[in-house]
Amino acid sequence: MTKKLIGKKLSRRSVLKGGAAIAASTAVTGFPTVWAQNIKDVTLVHTGMSYSTIADIARQASADLGFKVEMSVVDHPGLINRMVNDPNSIDIADMEIWQSKIAVPQGVTQGIEIGKIKNWGQLTPLYTEGKFAGKDVSRQGDSPIEFMYRDGKDAKAFAAGKTDWATFVPSVYNADTLGIRPDLTGRAVTTWADLLSSDFKGKTAIQNIPTNGIMDAMMALEAAGEMTYGDKGNPSQDEIAKTVAKLIELKKAGHFRALWNTFDESVNLMASGEVVIQSMWSPAVTAVRTQGVNCVYQPLKEGYRGWGNGLGIMSHVEGIKLDAAYEYLNWYNSGWVGGFIAKQGYYSANVETAKAALSENERGFFYEGKAATADITSPTGEKTNSAGEVRDGGSYEERFAQVAVWNNLMDEAEFLFAKWNEFNAA
After folding, report:
1. In whole angstroms, what is the distance from residue 410 CA to residue 421 CA?
2. Distance (Å, rounded) from C-alpha 362 to C-alpha 379?
3. 3-state helix, strand, coil in the chain (%, to 5)
4. Which residues pair with 83 in a beta bridge?
5. Residue 72 has what pLDDT?
6. Which residues contact 314 (CB under 8 A, 6 or more apart)?
7. Whose C-alpha in 221, 291, 307, 391 is 20 to 30 A from the C-alpha of 282?
8. SS (H, E, C) 57-122
């Protein structure tokens, strides 16, 4: 996918049309006294999706930094629409990587000066180098490295290689797979193809976010030997049409119990036992487990669907508010957030500080593939795992070495949204 195509195919009109279809603290030091006196009057509005735009993070940041951080939660199309139509209502955009493909050409975010990011060298090379454990990561879909850099503060295109300016500061990311109820499946689940198996007819669900749902479907159809894709990260119109036709066929046959739209829907479907295998997000698995229900984020032989977020600074942010924005970005990867989101099942861009913010037991469980030596709890303190259990999928290294494709906004996004509407209406 060329960068020229991104700008050409994703017009403002088509993006908005498509969006509608998807419907460890850091001390503030080293500044002049006047800066310190005025900084308390700054309010930064951090806007993003519910899985990462969390009030607890805002409270901790406000306490540690001495100015106010507010969280504003939207869904995926809501963030796109806000960034394009009401950019001044956002200061920090908590974007999925693919959303930067809309924000940057529109000029609504500014390049981030890497020299001002204190811990840049510690941030995962998954983003900054396009490598993991010394090997190139999959380039199917929107791999972070392709959108990591810009040529300047006001650049409206992505740079081909490293520069002194970043599109965003890497933040949370994960390797997604299917959630299952092992007590109800009646057999082992080892492949994405199981999402489509007749064994689970009427007991399966897929996420109703076109850009994600289509990728889960492609992973499953390819694993089942029903289709082969040139690039699951950027399928052709023909591949999209055939994939959606297969989904419509399955839906009409009663295969899907539901197409879920929200986090809570996915939790309720799994906790109730209405569904035994489905598209799922890691915090939703955690939420099911806090109810005392055995839910597993199942590693599958074909690998994971990777995704990542980055914190971008909106173009209107300047002066003392811009200083505060850089302080916030530095704080975000300094440890506290990394420890908090680990308990959701997510990873921090600064693995070193995140691990330091966890207990030895938590560090071993979430990052090192070790059995828990005591109960593991969610960010809010509910038990999710018992002593002796190992994290689904193993260590950080094991999980991210097996990312097969990245969440993306494909060249044929508008066509996808139209076809996905047909799937919903079938």
Report:
1. 17
2. 12
3. 45, 20, 40
4. none
5. 97
6. 83, 87, 88, 90, 91, 92, 93, 108, 109, 110
7. 221
8. HHHHHHHHHCCEEEEEECCHHHHHHHHHHCHHHCCEEEEEHHHHHHHHHHCCEECEEHHHCCCHHH
The pLDDT tens digits of the residues spanning 300-329 come to 999 999 999 999 999 999 999 999 999 999
Question: What is the set of domains in the chain, with CATH numbers?
Answer: 3-173+306-358 (3.40.190.10), 178-302+395-425 (3.40.190.10)
Per the confidence metrics, is the pTM higher than 0.90? no
**Residue carrying the six token digits 């998954």:** 126
Contacts of 32 (CB under 8 A, 6+ apart): none
Q: Which helix (H) or strand (E) holds 322?
A: helix 319-332
Task: Identify the three-state secondary structure at position 191.
Answer: coil
Q: SS3 for 408?
A: coil
Q: For residues 387 and 384, give the distance between their C-alpha atoms in angstroms, rounded to a whole number.
A: 10
Paired sense of beta strands 403-406 and 304-314, if any: parallel
**What is the number of other CB atoms lying within 10 angstroms of the CB of residue 18?**
23
CA atoms of 212 and 318, how far apart (whole Å): 35
List pLDDT tens digits, range 179-194. 999 999 999 999 999 9
Strand partners, 308: 173
Q: Is 285 exposed, middle or buried (0-12, 13-18, 19+ CB in 10 A)?
A: buried
- At what angle are helices 12-22 and 210-223 packed, to 10 degrees? 70
**144, two tokens:** 């972070």
**Is the Cβ–Cβ distance between 336 and 126 less than 8 Å?**
no
